[in-house]
Design brief:
Blueprint: H1 6-36, H2 60-65, H3 70-74, H4 81-96, E1 107-108, E2 113-117, H5 123-130, E3 136-138, H6 154-160, E4 163-164, E5 169-173, H7 183-190, E6 195-200, H8 203-217, H9 224-228, E7 229-231, E8 236-237, H10 242-245, H11 249-256, E9 265-269, H12 270-275, H13 277-287, E10 299-302, E11 307-310, H14 335-356
Parallel strand pairs: 2-5, 2-6, 3-5, 6-9
Antiparallel strand pairs: 1-4, 7-8, 10-11
Helix pairs in contact: 11-14
Bound molecules: adenosine-3'-5'-diphosphate.
Adenosine-3'-5'-diphosphate binds at residues 119-125, 175, 209, 212, 273-274, 307-308, 322, 326-328.
């Protein structure tokens, strides 16, 4: 039906004048929606950096690393490949579920707590379990700042961190820090109050796990027994082999204790993290001064995997286990070889129990 009256004309005019307003509102809402879902983080960083950093341009590397996607993780050189895969899987999970793992609120802080070791101890499991806690924000990939990228500077390091709000703590994990001599004084010079978490596991099993990982990457690797002995006739253990050296926990701890008091360390049992994840997570949350949010109800035991898995990992509503590179079957190692290695570690383990005041029961 046509419209012939003056009031009708006026109505049309009013409606037409609202179009630009509506259009602007739609644009604003679309922009806000994208920002809230983390999309803005992938835009040029100068636009979105926090006030503190505005005057200081990002190094290129920091820009790349601050984005949570697969291509970024690939750019971390010499990173433990299996851990990178695991991280990609976990991040993929967050994107799958269409929930953001980052946003533009809060500030980037230096980590108040770091998982400094040990490789193959269960560090990825611990980090993923911690990330369930709403007051923990953690870098997923291993930054390797205090061992490999220190020359990039603290500003670079801080830029890698996720943003945190008041009451949230920032964390990262790089298991090689524990065995890197320079790491302790460097962490100390960043902050002497940094809390340090070490996931330890029976050094014999840890060595086999370490070997298994290398074997996956280099199938032509000599046998474990070929590598573990300096002299197979005398049974002398080759302590220059990193798979052996990492497990001498007392020695590494001795060095860290020159910089940090024992009270600033928490030693997590890699074994208990598997048999009683909620119990071990209780200790971790207490140590970090967090409310015990991650409890029994967050875990279930996956029979196929043979490990505890999360009912609801960060950014997902679906249950999820760690990937194939975590919880791999180990090759068979002759009992006498393991026995010899166990004898080698015994005095170091005893010393470690004495130093930490904890008996890990490795025997
Ligand atoms: P294996 O693959 O030898 O069994 P890290 O993350 O420090 O590299 O440690 C890997 C180890 O974490 C695995 O070694 C596995 O035993 C242990 N782990 C602990 N909890 C786990 C979990 N819930 N799922 C998978 N692996 C877990």
């Amino acid at each position: 039906m046509g419209c012939w009256t003056t009031s009708c004309d006026l109505g049309h005019l009013k409606a037409r004048s609202k179009v630009p307003v509506l259009f602007t509102m739609i644009l604003i809402f679309t922009y806000l929606f994208y920002c809230l879902t983390g999309y803005c983080d992938s835009m040029p960083s100068e636009l979105f950096v926090h006030q503190n950093f505005r005057s200081k341009p990002f190094p290129k590397e920091a820009k790349k690393l601050s984005h949570w996607n697969g291509s970024v993780v690939r750019e971390l050189p010499e990173q433990d490949a299996t851990d990178v895969e695991e991280e990609k899987r976990q991040r993929g999970l967050a994107y799958d579920s269409n929930l953001s793992v980052s946003n533009n609120f809060g500030t980037k802080e230096f980590p108040q707590a770091i998982i400094i070791g040990v490789k193959k101890g269960g560090t990825r499991a611990l980090l993923e379990f911690l990330r369930v806690h709403p007051d923990v924000r953690a870098v997923g990939a291993e930054p390797h700042f205090f061992d490999r990228f220190y020359e990039k500077g603290l500003q670079w390091y801080r830029n890698l961190m996720p943003r945190t709000l008041d009451g949230q703590i920032t964390m990262e994990k790089t298991p090689s820090y524990f065995i890197t001599r320079e790491a302790a004084p460097r962490v100390f010079s960043m902050s002497r109050s940094t809390k340090l978490i070490v996931v330890v596991r029976d050094p014999v099993t840890r060595a086999v796990s370490d070997y298994t990982q290398t074997l996956t990457k280099s199938p032509g690797l000599p046998s474990f027994q070929n590598l573990v002995f300096k002299n197979s006739t005398t049974g002398l253990i080759d302590t220059s082999w990193s798979a052996v050296r990492i497990g001498i926990y007392a020695k590494h701890l001795e060095h860290w204790l020159r910089y940090f008091p024992l009270a600033q360390f928490l030693f997590v049992s890699g074994e208990k993290l598997v048999t009683d994840p909620a119990g071990e997570m209780g200790r971790v949350q207490d140590f970090l001064g967090l409310k015990r949010v991650v409890t029994n109800k967050h875990f279930y035991f996956n029979q196929t995997k043979g490990f505890p898995c999360l009912k609801k990992p960060e950014g997902s509503s679906r249950p999820r286990c760690l990937g194939k590179s975590k919880g791999r079957p180990h090759p068979h190692i002759p009992a006498e070889v393991l026995h010899r290695l166990r004898d080698f570690y015994r005095p170091f383990n005893m010393k470690f129990y004495q130093m930490t005041g904890q008996d890990f029961g490795w025997e």
